[in-house]
Amino acid sequence: MQTWFEWLSAVEGGTAAELRLMAHPYKPVDVARERMGRDEMFRAAIEERRRRLRALPVKTTGQATRVAVVRVLTIEAQRSGEIVAGGVRVVMDRRTLAERAAKSRKAVNKAIGHLCEAGDLRLDNAGRKAERAGAFVLPTSQGLAQKGPHNGRKQGESEEAGRAAGEAKRGGKDNPGGYPSALGDQVPALRWPKVVLYWAMKDGRRIVAASHYVARLGEKRGEIARHVLEAGGRAEVADLMARFASPKARPWDFDRRVLGPLVEAGILVRSEAGSAVEIAPDWRESLERERLQADEEEDARRQRQAHTRQRQAYRDRDRTPADEQTAPLVGKEENRRIREEQVRREKRRWVEEQRRKVGTTAATFLDDEIDGVYGVRFQDAAERWRTLHNGSASDLWQAVHFGPFVRRRIEGELYIDPEPETPAPPPPPEPQMPPKIDGVYRHGQECGCAWCAA
Which domains does the chain have, with CATH numbers? Predict the structure, then answer.
């Protein structure tokens, strides 16, 4: 049987042995490096976009979000963008843009609106179908508006001469160019801090029972880390304030509030004089550890899952039947009972989730002490909580207040019991027939018997 090498040698010429000598293991190719190494005009356009990206202000939360959006589009432009009249065109749907920028769709849409108003971005959706992703145009200067010959060769110049001139400009055939200012791309997009709200029912209304603030570095500090990397690993605090601080910011306040969390996380290191900061040797491990503690990967996973469900729902919009009401409507009392049962299950689920995520907390400890059936004296539980886990009584009291527990006092002592299940209401009594008069039922105006109800 003819081998693949023999067949290819018969088609292309040469011998099978020569083809075997030319074979080598497959190596993945960086598409962006190859594109910028071969197309000088495309490389110049990306370099200009990088300069414009560094010139964008990053003083407020909104400005940092806009920079994150432009950075994602710039990185995608290096891989799949194309030069069009007026700039570089990038195709990307907004859900994917929100995932890569680590921002919500609402924040991304707002940032795109501001960028379009300022002239830093342009939408290109003429003739686009609803099922297709949208396109953006990153503006460039007029000299790069029209796409020229490949490899930047001049009019009338041969292809070999243009390729040789391009290789000489890049420094040889083995140097494909690479990313301009690509060190900043090593820092992933960082999410803003968030507040987790815990809801409860009070007087028939849904209220916020407690809240938990999750501190994160945020996109602005991520831009500071990128700035230090692109500056060679060291930057003066005065230079950082010129780009990242408001005009009224004081140096010591900027150093404490903005740079302080980066230093505490082990990403930046202050110089001996304190007038500059340097990138730490193990900054990448410190950054990933900080993102893991701030639950950023979990939020990113939930965002991807939500977007997947939204995309699937849009694709199935014509195949999804309308909801049909099969169950009869219930009254206010039944709705209130169902809601109380849902709140009780949600409290129980929250305790189990805390146990799974962080181990033993005040709520899970109290849940184990109660054992699901019998209550426990609060003073005894507080002493064991303090002895075994070095916890405070205030944490235990908050768990009692917000968890699935109830309080009762017996002879002045406080006991904690599990929250009882809400019993189902008894069925309504059967309607009684009215009394007979002379052998005939006499129905009044307010009779509620089965005949009158029918």
Answer: 1-33 (no CATH), 39-147 (1.10.10.10), 194-293 (1.10.10.10), 357-418 (1.10.10)
Predicted confidence (pLDDT) per residue in 200-228, tens digit: 888 778 888 888 899 999 999 999 999 99
User: Considering the entire predicted model, what is its pTM?
Assistant: 0.60
Q: Where is pLDDT greater, at 70 or 431?
A: 70
| Nearest of 251, 247, 264, 194 to residue 59 by alpha carbon | 247
Whole-number average pLDDT of the chain: 78
Residue 262 has pLDDT above 50, yes or no: yes
Asked whether the beta carbons of 357 and 400 are under 8 A apart, the reply is no
Instruction: Give CA–CA dist 206/254, Å, rounded.
Output: 40
pLDDT of residue 135: 92
User: Residue 29 pLDDT > 80, yes or no?
Assistant: no
